[in-house]
Design brief:
Helix content is 44%, strand content 16%. The protein is built from 23 helices and 22 strands. Helix 3 runs parallel beside helix 6, helix 15 runs parallel beside helix 16 and helix 19 runs antiparallel to helix 20. The two termini are 36 Å apart. Belongs to the peptidase S41A family.
Length: 716
C-alpha cells in the first residue's frame, strides 16, 4: 500500500536533527578505533526507532520474543529446514536475550541461526536429490498440507524426509497435471491451414502417458530446486544482516522498514521511475514474493487477472521453463519479472483461496493517463448519474503546476454538472492512497469548510488539517465506493464524507486499515563524518504519525466500515492491516469540532432498500456463494496427492470460476458512456478514443456500481 506522500516539514527536520545529535553522542569514542559496521548499523537503527517511532517499543523480553518469532518465520517460512530440536535450542538460548544483543550492537542469534540453517540446507539438498531419483506413485491415498502456519517443524530427520517426500511429490504432481492440460489443449487446437500437406510425423506430437510425464516432471522439479538452493547457498553476510535489521524494524509495525543501500535504490525507482514491465508492486514476505498493489494503467491492471494478495511462485519468459522465485531475494525476483515492452511473462501464482493459476502478461509501460481521474455518465431509467474513477491520490511535489488528483476531480465534477447529472458515484475501490493534501482538498469539494483529518505524532496535541474553502463544488447526492484495498488517503476521504454525513459509503465489510504516516531517513545523513569510511548504511522508513478521523477514531487497524455493506468476491480474504505482523492498534482521541451536512442522507432507509435489492439479485447471490466457496477452499489447505483426485478438484474449481464469470457476463449491462465533451476533445485520435471506450466497457457489468446507482437514485 502506498503511504501518504507528505512533504517533510518542520516536524521531520526536528526529529532528524535529534537523530543526528543522538547518534553522534552514541558513537563518540574516547579512542581512535572504528567500530564494526554491523554494530554501528544495529545501534543507529535502534537509536532512530527509539527516538522517532510513533510508538517505540521497550527493549525487553517481549521485544526479544517478537524478533525471535519473526526472524524464524522469515528464514524458514515453510518450516522445511530447521528441526524442532534446532528451534528449541535457539529458543532456550536467545528468545529472551535479543534485547540485550541489540543494545550491544551484536547479533549472536542471527549468526547461530544461520550456522544451523546452512547445515540444514546442505542436508536437505542431499535429501531432495535422493528422493527425486525414484518415481512417485500417484494412485495412493495421501495428502499434503500446503499452509505453513498449520505445519510444524519436523521432529527429527526421519520426519523431515517424509515431509520432503510429500512436498516433492506435490511439486511433481502439479507439473504432471499442467502437462496433461497442455497436451489436451494441443489435441483440441485445429491445425493451421497450409498449402503443403503435412507429413504424418508433423501432424501432431506423440501422446505421452502420465508415467512418461512423471519422469519429465521429476527432472523439472530437480532443476527447480537446484536453482533455488543455489541461491540459498549464496546468501552473503550483507543480505542476512539486511534481513535481520528489517525484522527488527518490522516488529515495531509493518510499515517500519530497513532499506539496505541497494533496496533503497529499488524503492526510489518504484516511487519515481518510469514503469516498464507488468506494473505490480511486489514485496518479500516470509520468503514469498507477494503482490501488494497493482499500478493503475499498467499491463497487469489492464490484463486483470493478477491481484493484490497473490503470491508469485514461478516466473517464465514466454514459453521457457518456469523458474522458482520462492525464497529469492526481492530485487532478483523483480529483475526476472520486469522486462521490455511487448515481451511475455508467465507467472504461476497462488491465489488467497489456495488455488493456483498461470497468468500470462504482455509487458508494457504504464499508461499514465489511466492513472488519472476519469469520469463517465450512466443513464438509468431516464436518470443521468455521474461516475468518477480515482485510481490513486496523485500529486507532483516537484512541480507546482503539475497534475493534482484533487484539481482533476474538481474538473471532472464540473464536466458532470454540465452534463446535468442527478447524482455522483466516486469510486475509490483498489485505491491504495497517495497525497494526503489531495485527500483534504478533495473532501473540500463536497463540504463548505471545516476539519477533514487529524494527524498526531508521539507527543503533543494533534494537528487538524482543514478545508478552508467555503465553496462547495458539488452538493448533490453522493455515493463513495470502497473495498478492502482502499487504503490510507482513500480511508481519510471516505471517513470525512461519512463523519460529515455528506454522502453514503458503500462496499466491502471494511477498508484496509492503514492509518499511519511514514518518513524515510538516510542513515548516512544521521551518522557523523567519522563513519564515512564504512558508509553507506542504507535508510530507515519509520512510522512517525497516526491519522485520526474528525470524530476522534483512528482509521488504523479497523479501517472505515461502510454505511451499506455489499456482498464482495474478496470478502473471504484475510487482507488488511489487522492481518499483518505487529500492526499498531486502533485507538481514539478527542473529536474535532465540526458540523454535519444539513441535508444528510437517510442512511437507515437507504440501507434497508439496498438490502432488499441485493437479496433479490441473482448476481449478488452468486457473489455470496462464490465467497463462501472460496472461504471453504482457503481453509481447506490439504491437497490430495492422488492424481485423479487432484485433477478432479482442479476441474471443480475451474467450473465454479467459469460459472461465476458466465453469470457476471450475463448480468444486465449498465448504460455507461464516456463524456461527450471528452470524446469531442479526443477528435479522430483512435488510440485515445479506444482507451476511453475500454474504460467504460470494463464497468458495464459491474453489479456493485449498478447498486450504487440505485442508492443515488433513492436519494433524489
Amino acid at each position: 500500500m502506498s503511504f501518504p506522500r507528505i512533504k517533510i516539514g518542520l516536524y521531520a527536520a526536528v526529529v532528524l536533527a535529534v537523530f543526528v545529535l543522538a547518534s553522534y553522542k552514541l558513537y563518540r569514542r574516547s579512542d581512535a578505533r572504528t567500530p564494526q559496521k554491523d554494530a554501528v548499523l544495529v545501534q543507529a537503527m535502534l537509536q532512530g526507532l527509539t527516538t522517532m517511532h510513533y510508538q517505540p517499543e521497550k527493549l525487553d523480553d517481549t521485544f526479544s520474543k517478537r524478533v525471535f518469532d519473526l526472524y524464524l518465520k522469515r528464514v524458514d517460512s515453510n518450516k522445511k529446514f530447521l528441526l524442532a530440536s534446532d528451534v528449541a535450542q535457539l529458543r532456550t538460548k536467545f528468545q529472551n536475550d535479543i534485547d540485550e544483543e541489540v543494545k550491544r550492537g551484536t547479533h549472536e542469534f542471527m549468526d547461530q541461526t544461520n550456522v544451523l540453517l546452512d547445515q540444514r540446507v546442505k542436508d536437505v539438498q542431499a535429501l531432495y536429490r535422493d528422493i527425486l531419483t525414484k518415481p512417485f506413485d500417484f494412485t495412493t491415498e495421501e495428502t499434503f498440507e500446503t499452509e505453513p502456519d498449520k505445519a510444524s517443524f519436523a521432529a527429527d530427520k526421519s520426519a523431515q524426509r517424509e515431509e520432503w517426500r510429500k512436498f516433492l511429490k506435490y511439486q511433481t504432481l502439479v507439473r504432471v497435471s499442467e502437462m496433461m492440460d497442455a497436451q489436451a489443449k494441443k489435441k483440441d487446437k485445429p491445425l493451421a491451414s497450409t498449402s503443403v500437406t503435412p507429413s504424418p510425423a508433423t501432424t501432431s506430437e506423440p501422446t505421452r502417458t502420465p508415467a512418461e510425464m512423471e519422469i519429465e516432471a521429476r527432472k523439472r522439479v530437480l532443476k527447480y530446486f537446484d536453482d533455488q538452493f543455489n541461491d540459498l547457498l549464496q546468501n552473503d553476510a550483507n543480505d542476512r544482516l539486511a534481513m535481520y535489521a528489517n525484522v527488527i524494524a518490522n516488529t515495531y509495525d509493518p510499515h517500519t522498514e530497513y532499506f539496505a543501500p541497494r533496496d533503497k535504490e529499488s524503492f526510489d525507482q518504484a516511487m519515481t521511475g518510469r514503469f516498464e514491465g507488468i506494473g505490480a508492486s511486489l514485496q518479500e514476505k516470509d520468503g514469498q514474493i507477494k503482490v501488494s498493489d497493482i499500478i493503475p494503467g499498467s499491463a497487469s491492471y489492464r490484463q486483470g487477472e493478477l491481484k493484490a494478495g497473490d503470491i508469485i511462485s514461478r516466473v517464465a519468459q514466454g514459453d521457457a521453463e518456469p523458474v522458482s522465485v520462492e525464497g529469492m531475494r526481492l530485487d532478483k525476483a523483480v529483475t526476472m519479472i520486469k522486462g521490455k515492452k511487448g515481451s511475455e511473462v508467465r507467472l504461476t501464482v497462488k491465489k488467497p483461496d489456495n488455488s493456483t493459476k498461470i497468468i500470462s502478461i504482455i509487458r508494457d509501460v504504464v499508461v499514465i493517463k489511466e492513472t488519472f481521474a476519469q469520469s463517465a455518465t450512466i443513464n438509468d431509467a431516464g436518470k443521468k448519474i455521474g461516475y468518477i474513477k480515482l485510481p490513486t491520490f496523485y500529486a507532483d511535489f516537484n512541480d507546482n503546476g503539475g497534475r493534482s488528483s484533487a484539481e482533476d476531480v474538481k474538473k471532472e465534477l464540473e464536466k458532470l454538472k454540465q452534463e446535468n447529472v442527478s447524482g455522483v458515484v466516486l469510486d475509490l475501490r483498489f485505491n491504495g492512497g497517495g497525497s494526503l493534501q489531495d485527500a483534504v482538498e478533495m473532501a473540500g469539494l463536497f463540504i463548505d469548510s471545516g476539519p477533514v483529518v487529524q494527524v498526531k505524532g508521539p507527543q503533543g496535541a494533534p494537528s487538524v488539517l482543514n478545508d478552508r474553502d467555503p465553496r462547495v463544488q458539488y452538493s448533490g447526492p453522493l455515493v463513495v465506493l470502497v473495498n478492502k484495498y482502499s487504503a490510507s488517503a482513500s480511508e481519510i476521504l471516505a471517513a470525512a464524507i461519512q463523519d460529515y454525513k455528506r454522502g453514503v459509503i458503500m462496499g466491502a465489510a471494511s477498508t484496509y486499515g492503514k492509518g499511519t504516516v511514514q518518513r524515510i531517513f538516510d542513515l548516512d545523513d544521521a551518522l557523523p563524518a567519522e563513519f564515512n569510511s564504512i558508509k553507506p548504511f542504507g535508510s530507515l522508513k519509520l512510522t512517525t504519525q497516526k491519522f485520526y478521523r474528525i470524530n476522534g477514531g483512528s482509521t488504523q487497524f479497523k479501517g472505515v466500515v461502510p454505511d451499506i455493506i455489499l456482498p464482495d468476491a474478496y470478502s473471504y480474504l484475510d487482507q488488511g492491516e489487522k492481518e499483518s505482523d505487529y500492526p499498531l492498534k486502533w485507538d481514539e482521541i478527542t473529536p474535532a469540532r465540526y458540523r454535519a451536512w444539513a441535508q444528510a442522507p437517510a442512511t437507515e432507509k437507504l440501507r434497508t432498500a439496498s438490502q432488499a435489492r441485493v437479496a433479490a439479485s441473482p448476481s449478488f447471490r452468486l457473489v455470496n456463494e462464490l465467497a463462501q466457496r472460496m472461504r471453504k477452499r482457503k481453509d481447506d489447505t490439504k491437497v490430495s496427492l492422488k492424481l485423479t483426485a487432484y485433477r478432479a478438484e482442479q476441474q471443480t474449481n475451474k467450473a465454479e470460476s467459469d460459472k461465476y464469470e458466465a453469470a457476471q457476463k450475463a448480468a444486465a449491462p449498465i448504460a455507461i458512456a464516456p463524456l461527450s465533451a471528452d470524446l469531442r476533445a479526443l477528435g479522430s485520435d483512435t488510440v485515445e478514443v479506444n482507451r476511453a471506450s475500454r474504460f467504460t466497457k470494463n464497468l458495464n457489468k459491474d453489479i456493485t456500481l449498478r447498486e450504487a446507482v440505485s442508492v443515488v437514485k433513492d436519494q433524489m
